[in-house]
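Researcher: Good morning. I'm working through a list of sequences from a screen, and I'd like to move beyond sequence-only analysis. For each chain I'm collecting a predicted structure so we can compare shapes side by side. This is the next one on the list. No need for commentary yet; just the structure.
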Amino acid sequence: MMLDNVKITDFGKIAIAVSGGRDSMALLRLAMERRAKGSFYVVNIEHGIRGEESISDSEFVMRYCEDNGIECRMIKCDVPSYKKENSMTMEQAAREMRRASLMEEVLSGRADRVALAHHKDDNAESILMHIFRGSGIRGLRGMEYDNGVFIRPLLCVTRDEIDAFIEKSGAPYREDSTNSDVRYTRNYVRREIMPSLKKVFPSVVDSIIRLSKNAAECDEYISKNALNSVEFGDGYALIDVGADDAVFKSAAYEAFCHLGVTADVETRHYESLLALRKERSGVFLDMPHGVEASKEYNRIALAKTTEKCVSEVAFCEGTHLLGEYALKVERVSKDAVDHSLCENGKRALFLDGGGLDSAVIRTRRHGDTFRSFGGHTKKLGDYLTDKKIPSRLRNMPIIAIGSEVAAVAGEEIGARFKITDKTEIIYRLTLIKNI
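Model: Good morning. Structure tokens for this chain:
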């Protein structure tokens, strides 16, 4: 029996997600047989979907744990409200809330991993669902045994083998009435599609799993190349436009993950990013979860959008917060002037303080103009374009008198505000990234 090969002794302390169904009860029973008491505990999620039946299932799990001296944490979730607030299906809402709750067991340090009872048939069903939804090669990989938070010890075990183990061991379990409701996508695939496929292709589960292993090998190769085509930064990622399509899409996936976006990115989004490579610099697209994609010369930038700061403060000494930036203004002596000085990766600027009585510190606005030393007066936007500063970085503070820009923090002082032999008041401007 494949259950003899189940790895459930790895890691110091594990939390076992137990719903009360046969799969999770089989996993719990294996842990009781193969792990020391106290090296694992149970987490039960009460989704708030099935009323008294759901509460009864949770009480069943808690009683079983109490009778066997196992610690049990029961977590209540209001899935229906979450579904309504986020305009998603009940399946999606339950999956998101369950995943977030279980992840907290590891993030809080209570457990090294959370053990889930997904088995080989579950994995095959998931891969099939990915295919139906138009998944790329990554979706064909299916489930992982260990992703750093969750482990799936039963991935090598079939549903039939779990049923046999339950019967032999006498482990009790509960049947979830919603498991027979084929209005849920997973249940439809499990109860309608897979049985039909097995009639024609008896080894369909093993064939799908074999496909997933082949896909994993290909995806790992592409992913290694993708990492050479993407640069990660604080709140952004830059992808080379010259990468092959497959490598580019894999790099984009890594970029989204870097920004904390792991859901709702679909094929159409990747196709839009591929098309963006051929656009002129400065063109941008909105992506899911507040991510903006923009063409930056020979790269595509993905960055979390930040709310533009519209406030302003009178120019004075001190540290001033504007959106994601902070501007430090200090009055210094002529001896402290050093135009080669760099702080926080940006040039420290020295500003002639004469004539700044009405100046303000703010971010750029329509109509702002700037004249660089030795240059002509031009729109501030044109100046930033000439400097090849991408749009995602143009929210830096400026010093302005009306629409005239006296200084662009971290970049340059306006010609009229350069230090000369007649300068009496000098300010040093230091730009600090504040997020």
